[in-house]
Structure formats: structure tokens, C-alpha cells
């Protein structure tokens, strides 16, 4: 009897081991590094999803009152607990039929004067609705997949917008292969068009100011949009003026040449030994020389086999450490995200946010957005950040426990950056940042740069430390620096 039970337990354990191995094989995103977000499964519940709402022709129809268009975009449903919001499609390129999906939450306090904040997820190819529901939006899903109000949301003090970016991500789509972004100029141009249309529709005041924020691969997107706005508005009279004030980038990949320095970090953390360190150094040197030779395909492949693992079977990092999770060095894996995929694809949700039956692209199968951006991944936006630093507030914040875009890697690129204030940055004193008597992190100021390390947070810092990040963004957008 005893032996039989013992055997049954062993078999059970073996089955679990076999299942999780199969699971890992079918879901390569678990090894994906620059795309730290869960990718979702296809889901359809047969509920009528309604029709997609294309707002651009309505916004540009002068005989249609703005209030009427806003009313059409209004998201209605008892599941939202009375939280006011608007959603729909903006056509950003008519020729390719490229359309961007947005979801906008007016500020809960003083909406007429609240700063306008755009949040962009990374990936490439991760839906910004991930940030909405798991990081800083007014609603989150509880353990029973029901929406609840979030205690600390950036929409309390900001007019908060989420856009699925670039086209082909989440609910955003394009009809043509040429519609996909191939570089950050494409990204900046399409986002600028979407933001101008949102200003036409919602008419936020100039005095409140516009801020671009985001995380991870949005370390490229955020500067791309801000730089595009800066350039266009200084060169020509634009259809719509966007009162850009600054940007905030969380654990952002912006300057891969100077951020490709994992070996020393992992060695100091004790996650690799001297042999591992040698292998990392060799690969990092190779990656740097690919970048210097402008061979971005080669650089992508080095990055992929070193740590990313999108197109490689087992990166050096996962082989040496056994980690399947790169966003917090205290965790080797993470299995959250399943219920968000179902919620977003449910007919009732689709109808309420006006996407109809348009495909949700953030699935675990293909990632056309990343493939089109393959040569962009290891390219740098550092010169754009330097130019922005001459005119606008630039906040670079880093969750302390992240690996993929770790704090010392980001420090390394900032130290190389030439901008008004770079000399001061090198010697700037570090201040302890306290909230309610707790040490939230450390801050450095130099010129328009605000550099922050957020203590006890991983890659998704607003999820890990919601109160501190809420205080951080509110302080940044409401006070002079
Ligand atoms: C503009 O809106 C008016 C009023 O709703 C409508 O009658 C007209 O057909 C619209 N024009 C276009 C070009 O869609
Ligand atoms: C939100 O705040 C309420 C009231 O202070 C508290 O009971 C609850 O635990 C908080 N929820 C989370 C997820 O922190
Ligand atoms: C905002 O500022 C721009 C540039 O100074 C100006 O052209 C525009 O009319 C202003 N818009 C509003 C709504 O005041
Ligand atoms: C990775 O492994 C899978 C299954 O073993 C195989 O089908 C695939 O071709 C491999 N990919 C690469 C890039 O080696
Ligand atoms: C990781 O291990 C796998 C399986 O042994 C091997 O195929 C792969 O080449 C290794 N990856 C690297 C980058 O060394």
C-alpha cells in the first residue's frame, strides 16, 4: 500500500515535469527577454463584439460637434465601476489603412488642468493595455477576473492615454506589410498623428502639458515620439500643437551599445561564475563590434543568444542560470497574465471599447511587429535623448531588481551621453528619496535630467511599487525642476 502510494506520487511528479517541459516548449515567449510581457492565448466567447469605431472621419468632419464624437467613443458598462473612459481607432496612415487603438481616462481630479500623459508598452509588440491593467491604470483584474478599482492610479492626477503601438500591436492594425514600423522614425510619425487627433477630439489645454511615458522597449518609442513632435513643431506650422513638456522612461532600452553589459552585473549578483563571466564578455564584445560595423542583424542575433532568446533555443543567460524570467532577479519565472488575455478578447469587452472583431495581435504565435523591427532592436536613440535634454524634462527611472534593462546598464549609457548638464551629471550628488518615512529610492538631478533608482522594484516598477511610482510621476508633471 505504502509502496503503491509512493509510486503514484512519483508518477504524478513525472507527469508534472513532462507537462511543464512541454509547456515551456510551446511558449517560447517565456524565454523572451526584450519582450518581458506575457503573450496571450486566442479566446472567443461567441458574444457579439459589435463594430469597430473609426473616429478619424468624424474628428475631421467640421459639421459634427466634438461632444457628439466623444459620446460615440465613450466606454460604457457596469463592469467599469463608473470610471469614465473613451476608446476607438485613429487612422494614422490612410494608404496602408494603418489604425491605432487608444483608451483614454480623464483625470479624476481637475481634468481641465491635469497634465496629459501617454503610456507606451515595450516588447516590441506588447499591448499598452498590459500597463493599463497591471501597472498604472484606474482598473485591475482581481483573482476572479473581475475588474476592481486600483488604489494608486496615474489617472488620479493625469489625463491618461494608452495607445497600442506600433501598428500591428494589440488591437492596432495595418492592412499592408509596408504599414509596419521598420524603425523609430516610422514609430514617431504614426504616434504623432494619433496624438494630434486626440488633441483635436479632447481639446486639452496648452497649459497642462503633454508627457510621453513608457517602459522597456518604449525606451525607443518614447524618445521617438517626443523627438518627432519637437522636430516637426520647430520646422513647420503643424495642424495641431502638442504642448510637449517632458518624458519618463522606465527600465528602457535606448542605447544598446552601452547597455549590453550584462556579464559584470550578473557576476556581482552571484548568478554566474568566472567561466560564465568570460562567456558573457566574449559575446558582449562580439555584439559591440556588430553594432560598430552597423550590422544590426548580427547584433540582434548576439543579443538573442546572449540573453533574449526570442529566436534561440536557450540563451546563454537561461542556460547558465536556469532563469525563465528576466524582470526581477528574485524570481526565476512568472505565470501571470492569462486572465487579462481572456478579458480583452471577450465579446462584451470588445463591444464596449469599440474594437469589434478586429484581431488582438498580442498573442503567443507570431510577432510581426518585432520581425519588422529586427534591425531597429540594437540601434540607438541616444542622440535624440540628448537633443530632448536640451529642451524638456527627461526622467529615467529604473526598478532596482530588473535584469534585462538593469539600472547599472542604463547608468552606463547616461554617463556616455553628451547633453547640457552631462558634466554636472557625472558629479551630481545622490539624494535619498523618501515617501512617508520609507526609502523609496535614490535621485540625481543634472540639467533637465532626473535619474531615479526605485528600490525593491523589478522591470515593471509601477506594478511593484504603485504608491511610489504614483508619487514620482505626479511630482514630475506638477512641479518645476
Ligand atoms: C459630416 O457630418 C454630418 C452630420 O452628422 C453628416 O451629415 C455628413 O454626411 C458628414 N460628412 C462626411 C463627409 O462624412
Ligand atoms: C487598497 O486600499 C484598501 C483600503 O485602504 C485596502 O484595504 C486594500 O488592501 C488595498 N488594495 C491593494 C491591492 O493594495
Ligand atoms: C496652444 O499653443 C499654440 C502655440 O503657441 C497655439 O497655436 C494654440 O492656439 C494654442 N491652443 C490653445 C487651445 O490655446
Ligand atoms: C528549437 O527547438 C525546436 C524543438 O526542439 C525546433 O523545432 C527548432 O527548430 C529549434 N530552433 C532553433 C532556432 O534551433
Ligand atoms: C543552451 O543550451 C542548449 C541546449 O544544450 C544549446 O542548444 C544552446 O546552444 C545553448 N545556448 C547557448 C547560447 O550557449
TrEMBL record:
It holds the Pfam family Peptidase_S10. GO terms for biological process: proteolysis. SUPFAM superfamilies: alpha/beta-Hydrolases (SSF53474). Residues 1-21 form the signal peptide. Keywords: Carboxypeptidase, Glycoprotein, Hydrolase, Protease, Signal. It comes from the Eukaryota. Gene3D superfamilies: alpha/beta hydrolase. The keyword Hydrolase applies. It is an enzyme of class 3 (hydrolase). GO terms for molecular function: serine-type carboxypeptidase activity. Its EC number is 3.4.16.-. Belongs to the peptidase S10 family. This is Carboxypeptidase. It comes from Drosophila madeirensis (Fruit fly).
